[in-house]
Each structure stands twice: as structure tokens, then as C-alpha cells.
Model the fold of this input.
Amino acid sequence: NRRFLLDSRPKGEPVEKNFRLQESPVPEISDGQVLLHNIYLSLDPYMRGRMSDEPSYAPPVEIGEVMVGGTVSKIAASKHPDYEQGDWVLAQGGWQDYAVSNGKDLNKLGREPSHPSYYLGVLGMPGFTGYTGLLSIGQPQQDETLVVAACTGPVGSTVGQIGKIKGCKVIGVAGGEKKCRYAMETLGFDDCIDHHTEDFAQQLADACPDGIDIYYESVGGKVFDAVLPLLNVGARIPLCGLVAHYNATGLPQGPDRVPELMGILLKKRIRLQGFIIADHYGGEYQTFRQEMSHWLEQGKIHYQEDRVDGLEKAPKAFIGLLKGENFGKLVIRTAND
Ligand code: NDP
Done:
């Protein structure tokens, strides 16, 4: 059983040395438990927060503990009445080959799910995040302008495509020409602006002649700076993530711009609301699953994975995720399915 432990806390950008690969025996299970064989491991930006011991909405991974992570796993052995060997489940199996569960944190996926790894992306936590943030906070209306940051990732691509379904004009922001082309040609966005270009702010302004009604924020930094002057009266900002700042070690240089920001929020009556998706599981999740499955079947939602083979590649892939090296939902295939 290979497993990645958190070996040290990163200062700024994580490095591979922060993780330690350990070989250990496959765990034994007792009554009421199942042995999970992790087949797919999800790598997500929130894991940067778990590597840090700063106060947050969830406790950190302790030094020497296995890195946390969502997995799609097969039941390798069961002493639990509700699970049989060979069942597929959505689990919190972590960065390792095998994990033990008492069944409480498992979500059944049946005997032969057609795309098991989708439950880590478009049909799982990131898809649900995009769906909930956009619909409940963004409240998209026909013909409004929606700007989506990190628009080719699992959250952003979901947001933009639902925005199109709701009749919005959707402008994506992504890193690089290839991602922008994908956003327009495959995801059906009206435009997509590359945030690496020098005149990014001007290009964004040109793409939003009627201003911005909804900005789905996942990034912060210069993308937010470019969006701010374009926001319309009554704009909504679902504050989902701030990935441009996750590796920051302090506040950026420069004058204090909080008063300017507060002034814009006030004068334009803008609603900026942070949310953590873990608060929304329950009935809402079932509604999301049904609606999203339907959209996928109808071809209204496209989904792309960036699949990396081999658990040993997880640290490098994760470090790249925080820099935009992934193209689509980053998933590690830890074993053959
Ligand atoms: P993505 O696959 O979209 O990966 C993150 C992307 O962020 C990168 O691919 C990159 O895309 C972009 N990025 C990284 N650094 C910068 C930067 N400096 N400036 C601009 N863009 C940058 O991840 P997810 O779809 O899984 O997550 C998207 C966001 O949603 C994250 O902020 C995450 O933390 C947040 N989230 C929040 C949840 C909640 O409960 N609130 C739950 C799940 C996710 P590009 O190359 O296009 O710039």
C-alpha cells in the first residue's frame, strides 16, 4: 500500500519534498468496515489549504498524516452489511492505494458506473460547486453578462455552460490560447480572454460592452482587478475561490485598496458572497446530480479530464494545478479499473 504523507508545511508554493511516499501493509478491516481500493484520486486546489495550519473552515492535515482527497474506489473487502466486494463508491480515500471506511462517508455508485471518475468532477464536488454558486448566489438572468475565471477547470466550465443554458452572454478567462479556444469552440462561450496577455484588462473590457452582471470568482489577483471597474449596478459575485493567492506568504505590495473596493460595492449595490460547498450537501446535491446527468446525456454540458496515470505523480501534478498546468479536471488514476 503506497501512501503520500504530509512531510512538511509549504512556505509559498508547495514543493515535492513537502510530501513523503511511504510503503505500508494493506490495512486489515474489522466488523462494520470496508477496505477501499482507490482507483481514481481527485486533486483539487483546496488541498493547498489543508497543507497549512492557518485557521480555516476545515482542520489541517497533520504532519505525518496521509494527504486527504476524494476518491472513486472499489470495495476490495467488506465486513459491512451494506457493501459488497466489487461495489464502486465515492469516498474520501486520500492519497493512497487502500483505505478503510466505516461506510458513513461513502456514496454508492453501483456495480458498473459508466464514467466512474466523473463523480470527482462534473458529477461531484466541483460540478456541484459551480452549479450551487452560480444558481443560488449568481442568480443568472437571460441576456446578462457572466464572466467566469479559471473557465476550463471543472468548476469554471460548469459555471459557464450553465450560464449559457440560462441564456447569459458568457465571457471566460483562462490561461493561454489553447484553453481559450476550447472555451469558445467546445464549451460554447461567447468569448474567452487569456489572462497572460499584456492588455488583458482592455480585452476584457472590450468583450463586455454592457458591463458585467455576474462575476464568478475563483482566482482573485489581476483578474479581479480587471473585473472590478466593469461591474454593473446590482452585480453578483459568488466568491468561490482565490487560487492566485493560495501560495501567497503575505499581503501584496502597494497602497491599501480596501476603501476603493468597499466604495464600489456600496455605490453599485454589489452582492459579494463567499460560500463553502460542504455546507450545501443534502437534498440540493441530489437535485444537482439529476439535473447535471440530464444535461450530460443531452450533450448540453461538455466535460474534460486531465488524467495522470500513477499515484507517484500526484505531488508534481498538484503543484502544477496551482499554476494552471492542468487542462480540465485533474484526476490521478491510481489503479486499473
Ligand atoms: P481548476 O482545475 O480550475 O484549477 C485551478 C485553475 O486556476 C488553474 O488551472 C488556472 O487556470 C487557474 N489559476 C491558477 N493560478 C492563477 C492565477 N494566478 N491567475 C489566474 N488563474 C489562475 O480548479 P477547480 O475548478 O477545481 O477549482 C476552481 C476554484 O474553485 C478554486 O479557486 C478552488 O479553490 C475553488 N473551489 C471552491 C470550493 C468552495 O467550496 N468554495 C469548492 C471547490 C473549488 P488557467 O490556466 O485558466 O489560469
User: Anything to note?
Assistant: Residues 44-46, 126, 129, 150, 152-156, 174-175, 179, 195, 218-219, 221, 223, 240-241, 243-244, 275-277, 321, 324, 326 surround NDP (CB under 6 Å). The radius of gyration is 20 Å.
